[in-house]
Amino acid sequence: MRIATYNVEWFANLFDARGNLLEDNGWSARHNVTRADQLGSLGIVFTAMDADAVMIVEAPDNNRRRQTVEMLETFAAHYDLRTRRALIGFSNDTQQEIALLYDPDRLTAVHDPKGNHQEDGAPAPRFDRQFRIDLNIDGSLDLVSFSKPPLEIAATSASGREFRMIGVHIKSKAPHGVNGPAHLQRIAIENRRKQLAQCLWLRARVLEHLANGDSLIVMGDFNDGPGLDDFEKLFGRSGVEIVLGWDEPKPTRLFDPHARAVIGKKLGAHPATARFYLDSEGQYFSALLDYIMVSPDIRATGPKWRIWHPFDDPGCYAVPELREALLTASDHYPVTIDLDL
Fold first, then answer.
1. Which residues contact 196 (CB under 8 A, 6 or more apart)?
2. Crossing angle, helix 35-49 and helix 68-78, to 10 degrees?
3. What sign does the CA torsion over 236, 333, 3, 111 have?
4. In this predicted model, what pLDDT tens digit does every residue of 46-105 receive, in sequence order?
């Protein structure tokens, strides 16, 4: 089975107010890319991946006028994709949902959130609620919430193997509404604390599943990674390392080979899943933001990971149509895992 995670930049803008595809020459939210070009490129990428399930980050928004599931299934039908069934969990108001597009012949999937209200010493609350934690280490509890609640899925493969998936889009650390360098630093640190709190919340859910013996896959855009910024020095570790349980006993750790490749590595080439243009520098920079983390039992089966990078992956680079489609479709590249389920 092949499972993917893919952050599709502003997928919502490729549909009209009624949820119809806008395959026209109007501009998409991507710089100098038409909606037709972005949609056509997405069709090429999804077809080339040929995944059984794709966790879509920044899926089209879900509201009274249009529905995420209907839009994704319209997209799948238009490009004749076998991942023709869609699923979302708790919708949000950011115009960027987390959704699963999957092949119903290969697996079944249902939204199955865990957790209730948090009490002292109890497991983590449900992801659409609030998590109490002392963010400022001042003796008082703060309330943390997800702007995009993770999507918790109970899945069963065609062979009958049950497993869990959690799709995530952790809040970005980019500070907004700043007024001077001091304010910038304070807001950035506050945002970083909130992000790490979300990762601690997610880690608590991971530990629950591992304690229950669940086969688990955690995937999505963490907007974070080992060595990504200087705040890691301030807080000691990245959010990705927290969710992985990097310094915890092996039976409770998740694994992602790309995170493993950069943890503690200061020099040399790093894998990357995203590419952004930096106006101030007049050039592109790359970052490792997207991950597929698996539980020890899944890792033991020998899964194979792949970043569909148009320049770093020889198979992608060798096919000009796919290479250009990856560059046009989004500022992130898909990550896939092939595994025995």
1. 235, 239, 242
2. 80
3. positive
4. 999 999 999 999 999 999 999 999 999 999 999 999 999 999 999 998 889 999 999 999
Question: How far apart, in Å, do the first and last CA atoms of the chain sit?
Answer: 6
Contacts of 97 by beta carbon, 8 Å cutoff, 6+ apart: 58, 59, 60, 61, 62, 68, 88, 91, 148
Region of residue 246 (phi > 0: left; psi between -120 and 50: alpha; otherwise: beta): alpha
For residue 186, give both structure tokens: 């304070």
Encoded tokens for 301: 């089966």
What are the structure tokens assigned to 229, written together?
Answer: 């910024």
Report whether 325 contacts 2 (CB < 8 A): no
Q: Which neighbouring-strand residues pair with 85?
A: 102
Distances (CA, A) of 87 to 21, 64, 264, 318, 327: 18, 17, 37, 33, 26
Please name the residue that has the structure tokens 């899925």: 153
Task: Say which residue the tokens 């899964």 belong to.
Answer: 303
What's the whole-model pTM score?
0.92
Distance of CA 23 to the CA centre of its chain: 25
Q: Which domains does the chain have, with CATH numbers?
A: 2-338 (3.60.10.10)
Strands (E) located in 33-88: 53-59, 85-88
Displacement of CA 264 from its chain's centroid (Å) = 23
Q: Looking at 148-278, list the stretches that DSSP marks H as alpha helix, in order from N- to C-terminal side.
A: 181-211, 231-235, 239-244, 257-262
Q: Which tokens hold the place of 108?
A: 């079944």
